[in-house]
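Appendix B. Chain record.
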Amino acid sequence: MWFLGLPTTKWKTFLIIGAILLVILFTLILRKLVIYLDMVEKVKKPPPNTSNNKAITTPPAADLCGNAIIRTYALEELRAATRNFKFRIGIGATSYVYLAELGDGRFGVVKRLMGERGGSKKMFLDEVSVLLRISHPNLVGLLGFCCEGGEQLLLLEYIPNKSLFDRIHTHKGQGLGTLPWASRVSIALDVARALSYLHEQADPPIIHRDVKSSNILLIDDNHAKLADFGLCKLGIESYYSQTPCIIKGSFGYVDVNYLKTGLVSPKSDVYSYGVLLLELITGLKSMQGSATLPEWTEETRRKINDKELMELLDPKLNGNVNVHQLRVLVDITNLALMDYSEGRPDMSEIVHRITCSLELQVPN
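Structure tokens predicted for this chain:
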């Protein structure tokens, strides 16, 4: 190659080296793709109980009610189950999430707290403490945990259909078709039930502090579970003792009163739930440029006329909505987003109102 100033022999050498590097790169990519497809295939079609897979040889025992007993796992067990943390399926604020093959036809999710992402042992122990106290059909359950070798790992229930955020805001999720109105109402009710349990039945009460669409995992298009308890706060003593705490949560969802005062209460979750309802109604994200979704929609959602209220509706629904239910959800949203937090409804009241709107079945 005389025009590049290089002898022909040297140029051939560069070509050979380049070709070798491309082959190596292609081989690595192909290997990762094979691993990915293998894991996905096993999730879609779980192996029979006679499988020779021994990733975790001793599944959790079951109690008299049939629920899995939570137990501790050895680090090597979870390394084997996740193929040494190779198949990452999600990223949290302070953690990475991996698919785990449990070796008996079941799958789980390993949440790996990462120090470089702000995770800490205290955060891990706080989350374990919360998860050990709760059990509800609309909350993601804990199967086990590991605190060994500098690792903080949670083994959680696997929900295969990703999050509500993925379903309504990503190209792949929208490719599955528009999420129908009835499904949106059903998901809203499931999340309300989960929060009602945390606030009013858990002992002590639990404030989630990070209610958002990416923490709502879909069993299917009609049923959901609330996940990620890393920011939970036990009890409500900080609010009644008027002791401010560090602001936690996701921008766009955080209670405006909590932002102003540092005082958190169950009504902070109610505010975040109101933002979630707006997402379901409008199909929009929690932030619209520099404005929050509550700010962006405030004028329209306060209109009384049902025809004007339809302007809020996700255009992808093409008007296919039960107008009575729309009015109920908008009314709940307006109350949940009140600046005066004590004026907001309890989650049990919200559950009641949504349930009644489903039972009444007022025609459009």
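Further analysis of this model is presented in Appendix C.
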